Amino acid sequence: MPRQGVVMLLAVARALRPVARSVRTPVRPRSTVAEAESRFITGHPDCNVTPYIANLVGRDLHKKSAHPLGIIKDRIEAYFAGLETSYDVFDGEDPVVTTTQCFDDLNIPPEHPGRSKSDTYYLTDTELLRTHTSAHQSQHLRQGHEAFLCTGDVYRRDEIDASHFPAFHQMEGVRVFEKEEWESKGVEAVDLARDELRTPLEGLARHLFGDVEMRWVDAYFPFTEPSMELEIFFKGEWLEVLGCGVMEMQILEEAGLGDKRAWAFGLGLERLAMVLFDVPDIRLFWSDDKRFTKQFEAGMFKAGGVDMRKFKPYSKYPPCLKDVSFWLPKDAEDGSNLFSENNLCEVVRDAAGSLVEEVKLIDEFENKKKGLTSNCFRIVYRSMERSLTDDEINTIQEKVREDMVAKLGVELR
């Protein structure tokens, strides 16, 4: 599922108080390895959560006011607190959700690739680590929250490079409109919701990036129609800031709000923080290295990063490159295949943790006589904090090779 697609969420409602109501939860204590594994590694046949992923849950980076993600989150919440409409603020829901919450409630069909085990971390056949904060949308609507922001950590089995990590952070906003609001203006409900979303979201972009050129681009999301993306021209290129749209009526009807209309938006905190603070590698957000953490402080943000202290890279340690070539397994009778690039990345990530910087396909060819296809992937190992030794990387690489055979069914070359 395209990240920008699942990144967004749905609608926002009207209230009259000028100050946002807080529905926050305290920072969760970080789980021990044993506690994390006992909850998230369930032993169920469909469970594909690894110890590495389990121990990312509960870090709550978005709640740390002196962390880049917390700084951006606080900046966005401050903007919405200044609007006429009052928004409830959620930032501590349990990341374990049901397939109903994460997919069915949002009109995401059973055949959607985002539901597959190659894309999503499942605990059981019906429970998973949320892939977007939208998983809590219907819940909040049913509870009577008609204008809210919701922020949290989300999880996806994804590629490995400087801008992708299996855990990241999203914020969604929802705003619901009453019937009298569109009738009093003599417009259709969908037109009101669509037109009303532009002003606050353009204002948010200026709040974060300063006086920049903007454009709206038509998009597709399963849970909104019409759907749009807001892009800004920043640092010489067009940058997607958020996705948004008018919430599908079926979602509102199932939440008991069939007589209303709504809009919603969603954005990724890491994407914004990397651009605004000049952070070159997404893994840095998870680092406890003081050379990183000491560079940020609460309230340091300035619109567009103008005159704001940016991240200053410390020594960049040398990479260690390892190539691995193999024959892909043939499809099973039902058409399934153990191998996918996401599954390979998960094998590497499970063995190397945050020491892996990139996994990239560098060669592919088909042997027609054998009826087999060969791939060669280059794995780049690099620590953000120290030099790696040949011995430790060789040990990791050997485990990767063994697990590729055992878990993915490939034949090494």
Question: Outline of this structure?
Answer:
This protein has 413 residues and is of the alpha+beta class.
N- and C-termini, Cα separation: 31 Å
- Give the radius of gyration: 22 Å
Work out the helix count: 13
- Largest sheet, spatial ordering of strands: 1-4-5-9-8-7-6
Strand elements, count: 13
Which structural category do the helix and sheet elements fall into?
alpha+beta
Helix content: 25-40%
* Mean pLDDT figure: 91
State the major sheet: 7 strands, mixed
Overall shape: globular
Strand content: 15-25%
pLDDT < 50 runs, ≥5 residues: 1-20
What is the helix/strand order?
HHHHEEHEHEEHHEEEHEHHEHEEHE
Describe it for me?
By secondary structure, this protein is α+β, with helices and mostly antiparallel strands. Helices cover 29% and strands 24% of the residues. The protein has helices at 3-7, 33-40, 51-54, 68-81, 99-102, 137-142, 179-185, 189-209, 249-254, 269-277, 290-293, 341-352, 390-408; strands spanning 88-90, 96-98, 127-129, 147-155, 167-177, 213-221, 224-234, 237-247, 261-268, 320-327, 356-367, 372-381, 411-412. The strands form 3 sheets. It has a 7-stranded mixed beta sheet. β7 and β8 (237-247) form a beta hairpin. α4 packs across α8, α4 packs across α10 and α12 (341-352) crosses α13.
